[in-house]
Amino acid sequence: MKRPTHVENEDQVLKRITDQLIEQGKSQKELVESLGLKKGMYTAWKSGLSTSYRKYMYEIAAYLKVSPNFLLNGEENEDDEEKLIRLYRNMDKTRRSMLLSYAYTI
After folding, report:
1. pLDDT tens digits, one per residue of 5-18
2. Crossing angle, helix 57-64 and helix 8-23, to 10 degrees?
3. 81 exposed, middle or buried (CB, 10 Å; 0-12, 13-18, 19+)?
4. CA–CA dist 71, 81 (Å, integer)
5. Angle made by CA atoms 61, 40, 14, in degrees to the nearest 5
6. Can you give the CATH number for the domain in which 55 is found?
7. Residue 13 contacts by C-beta under 8 Å, 6 or more apart in sequence?
8. pTM of the model
9. How far apart are CA 45 and CA 60, in angstroms?
10. Neighbours of 49 (CB within 10 A)
11. Does 4 share its domain with 49?
12. Domain coverage including residue 40
């Protein structure tokens, strides 16, 4: 079987997804399970055997708490409030508490 060729942009989308998983301490397995897909699907995406991740872009972005635009283009179109919310959601309970304590003082 001939291996499919990648479009560079698709490689970049998967790289951003993978980078976000690593940054957030989440696994590929957890992502695919959250989407209700078979466990080998992420490997199929990375090897170019499937591009089905495209139809799950909004769900993947929501799972990673980033915008679909970031995954597709590497750019965020967020205002400061959205950035703060996203950062807050990615914090552990201790850091959230610290941030709220600081916010109350200013």
Report:
1. 333 467 889 999 99
2. 30
3. exposed
4. 20
5. 35
6. 1.10.260.40
7. 53, 71, 72
8. 0.63
9. 13
10. 14
11. yes
12. 1-75
The set of residues, in sequence order, having a beta carbon less than 8 Å from that of 15 and lying 6+ positions away, is: none
Tell me the helix, strand and coil percentages in the chain, rounded to 5: 70, 0, 30
Whether 67 and 83 share a structural domain: no
Q: Is the domain of 22 the same as that of 6?
A: yes
Cβ–Cβ < 8 Å for 28, 40: no
Sites in the chain below the pLDDT cut of 70 = 1-9, 76-79
Residue 57 in tokens = 């872009």
CA atoms within 13 A on the CB side of 64: 25
Q: Which amino acid is it at 24?
A: Q
